[in-house]
Design brief:
heterodimer; A: 255 residues; mainly alpha; MetI-like fold; B: 246 residues; alpha/beta; Rossmann fold; 2 domains; four-stranded antiparallel beta sheet; globular; binds adenosine-5'-diphosphate; binds magnesium ion
C-alpha cells in the first residue's frame, strides 16, 4: 500500500521539483507559472484566513445537495425504466440525445431560467449526475436474472416486496457504480458552473485568481479540485469493493 | 371427487415465436389425489416443464383448465410450491433466509417453519452458509426446503435432481421419499428418468413428444423403499421405455 502510494506520487513530485527549479533559474515567468513553493505559501495563507475551507465547503455543499436530488430522481426512474421494456423503448433515444450535451452547455440556459443564484448551479449538478445513475440503474434492474424473478412470482411476492427482495439486491452493485460515476461527473460539472457564475466555491476561487491576477490562487484551486475529486472517487471505490465480494458470490450463486 | 388435489383438464399450449408457432402440449389431462406421489416421464423437450409451469400458474394454457383443490388456477398460489430444475437460490441470502423467502411474516411461527424445513432436508448445520458455499445437492435441498416452508398442499418438482451426480441423486431420491412420507404432501414430479419415477411414485404418466401428449398412466404397485433390481421394477422399466420411444 505504502509502496503503491509512493509509486503513484513519484511522477507528480518529479514534475513539481523540475517546475520549482525552472522557476528559480528564472526560465519561466512567475506571472504565468508561479513556483510550487509560492502556490504552497498561497495555500497556507488561504488556509489561515479561512478562504480555502469556505470555498471547498461551499462547493461540497452544492455537490451534495445536487447529487442527492439527482439520485432521488434517477434511481426510481431507473428502476421504472429497467423494469418496463416499453419505457426503455420510449425514452432511450431522448436520453442518448441528452447524454451528448455536456452539463456546462446548459449553464447559460439554467441561469436564464433559474437566475444566477444557487438553483442554476444545483441544476447543473443534478443534470451531470443523472445519466450515470439512471443508466446504471436501468442496466442493473434490467439485468436481474429472470429465473429469480420467476421464483418471486411463484412465491407470490407483491410488487413492492418483489422490488425490495429481488430487484434491488440484484441491482445494488450496478446502482452503486452509477452513484460513484455520477458523483465524479458532478464534481467536474460543478467547478465548471462555479467558474461561470458563482461568488463562492472552488470554481469562484479560480475566477478571483484570474481577475485579480493571482495565478498562485488559481493553482491552489486547480490542485484542490483534482485532489478532492481523487479522494471522493477513492473512498467510493473502497466502498464498492466492500460490496464486491458479494458480486463474486452473486455470479456463482446456487451454482 | 373430494380427494382430488390437482386436476388438469385438456390442457394445451402453443407458443408463438418469431419462426412460427410451436405446439408443445396437446390435450393433456391428469389427476393427482391428495397425498399422492405422481410422476410425469418423458424425453427432453416433450413439454414437461411447460406442463409444470402451467400447473404452477407461471404460464397460461392456450386451452383447457387446471384446478387445485377444486379451484381453478389462474396464477401462482399458496397451495402450490415449485422446485425448479435449477436451485434458483438468492445469492445474497444465506440458507436460512433463502428458505424463509416465501414467508410473509418474520415471527416465531415463521422461525419454527424454517427450522422444521431445515431439519427435513438435513441442513440445520448449514443455516448460515451462502449459496456459493453449497454443493449442487445441498443447493437443491435448500430449494426443496424453501418450497416446503411455504407450506403448500402440493409440491411441483421439475427434474430437481437432473443436474446432480448419480450418487447424490440416489441419496436425494430416498430423502425425497422420506419427506413425502413424513409430510404427506401431494407431489408432482416431472422427470426424464424412468428409474427415478419408478423409485418414487405411485403412478406414472407417460408423455410423448411433439406435441406433448399423455400416452398412458402406469400404476406402480410396489412397496417402499423400492428395489431397482426387483424383477417387477425391471419389467415396468422396460415397459415404460418401449412406451416412451414407441
Ligand atoms: N417460452 C417458449 N417459447 C417458445 N417455445 C418454448 C417456450 N418454452 C418452451 N418451448 C418449447 O417447448 C418445447 C418443450 O419444452 P419444455 O417444456 O421445456 O420441455 P421439457 O421440460 O420436457 O424438456 C421445447 O421444444 C421448447 O423449445
Ligand atoms: Mg424441462
Amino acid at each position: 500500500m505504502r509502496y503503491k502510494i509512493a509509486r503513484g506520487a513519484a511522477f507528480p513530485v518529479l514534475v513539481l521539483c523540475l517546475w520549482e527549479i525552472g522557476v528559480r533559474l528564472g526560465s519561466v515567468d512567475v506571472f504565468f507559472l508561479p513556483a510550487p513553493s509560492a502556490v504552497g505559501k498561497s495555500f497556507l495563507n488561504m488556509l489561515a484566513n479561512g478562504l480555502w475551507q469556505a470555498s471547498l465547503w461551499a462547493s461540497l455543499k452544492r455537490l451534495l445537495t445536487g447529487f442527492v436530488l439527482s439520485a432521488l430522481c434517477a434511481v426510481p426512474l431507473g428502476i421504472l425504466a429497467g423494469k418496463t421494456r416499453n419505457v426503455r423503448y420510449w425514452v432511450s433515444p431522448t436520453l442518448t440525445f441528452l447524454q451528448q450535451i455536456p452539463p456546462i452547455a446548459w449553464i447559460p440556459v439554467f441561469i436564464l431560467w433559474l437566475g444566477i443564484g444557487e438553483a442554476s448551479k444545483i441544476a447543473v449538478i443534478v443534470y451531470a449526475a443523472f445519466f450515470p445513475i439512471f443508466l446504471n440503474t436501468v442496466q442493473g434492474v434490467g439485468g436481474v436474472d429472470p429465473q429469480l424473478i420467476e421464483v418471486g412470482r411463484a412465491f407470490m411476492l407483491k410488487p413492492l416486496r418483489m422490488l425490495r427482495r429481488v430487484y434491488l439486491p440484484s441491482a445494488a452493485l450496478a446502482i452503486f457504480t452509477g452513484l460513484r460515476l455520477g458523483l465524479s461527473n458532478c464534481w467536474r460539472a460543478l467547478v465548471g458552473a462555479e467558474l461561470i457564475a458563482a461568488a463562492t466555491g472552488i470554481g469562484a476561487l479560480i475566477n478571483d485568481g484570474r481577475q485579480l491576477s493571482q495565478p498562485d490562487k488559481i493553482f491552489v484551486a486547480v490542485f484542490t479540485i483534482g485532489l478532492a475529486g481523487m479522494l471522493i472517487d477513492f473512498s467510493l471505490k473502497k466502498l464498492e469493493n466492500k460490496l464486491r465480494p458479494g458480486k463474486r458470490m452473486y455470479a456463482q450463486g446456487g451454482k | 371427487m373430494a380427494g382430488e388435489q390437482l386436476k388438469v383438464v385438456d390442457a394445451s399450449k402453443t407458443f408463438y415465436t418469431e419462426w412460427g408457432k410451436v405446439e408443445v402440449l396437446r390435450s393433456v389431462s391428469l389427476t393427482a389425489a391428495r397425498g399422492e406421489f405422481l410422476s410425469v416421464v418423458g424425453v427432453s423437450g416433450c413439454g414437461k416443464t411447460t406442463l409444470l409451469r402451467i400447473i404452477a400458474g407461471l404460464e397460461q394454457p392456450s386451452g383447457g383448465e387446471v384446478f387445485c383443490n377444486g379451484v381453478r388456477v389462474s396464477g401462482p398460489g399458496s397451495d402450490r410450491a415449485v422446485v425448479f430444475q435449477e436451485p434458483r437460490l438468492f445469492p445474497w441470502l444465506n440458507v436460512e433466509q433463502n428458505i424463509a423467502f416465501g414467508l410473509k411474516q418474520r415471527n416465531e411461527a415463521a422461525r419454527r417453519v424454517v427450522e422444521q424445513a431445515l431439519e427435513l432436508v438435513g441442513l440445520s448445520a448449514f443455516r448460515q452458509a451462502y449459496p456459493h458455499e453449497l454443493s449442487g445437492g445441498m443447493a437443491q435441498r435448500v430449494a426443496m426446503a424453501r418450497a416446503l416452508a411455504f407450506e403448500p398442499e402440493a409440491l411441483l418438482m421439475d427434474e430437481p435432481f437432473s443436474a446432480l451426480d448419480a450418487q447424490t441423486r440416489t441419496h436425494m431420491q430416498s430423502e425425497l421419499q422420506e419427506i413425502w412420507r413424513r409430510t404427506g404432501k401431494t407431489i408432482l414430479l416431472v422427470t426424464h428418468s424412468i428409474a427415478e419415477a419408478l423409485l418414487l411414485s405411485q403412478r406414472i404418466c407417460i408423455m410423448t413428444s411433439a406435441p406433448g401428449r399423455f400416452r398412458e398412466v402406469v400404476e406402480v404397485d410396489l412397496p417402499y423403499p423400492r428395489d431397482p433390481d426387483a424383477p417387477e421394477f425391471i419389467r415396468l422399466k422396460k415397459y415404460i421405455l418401449t412406451q416412451l420411444t414407441a
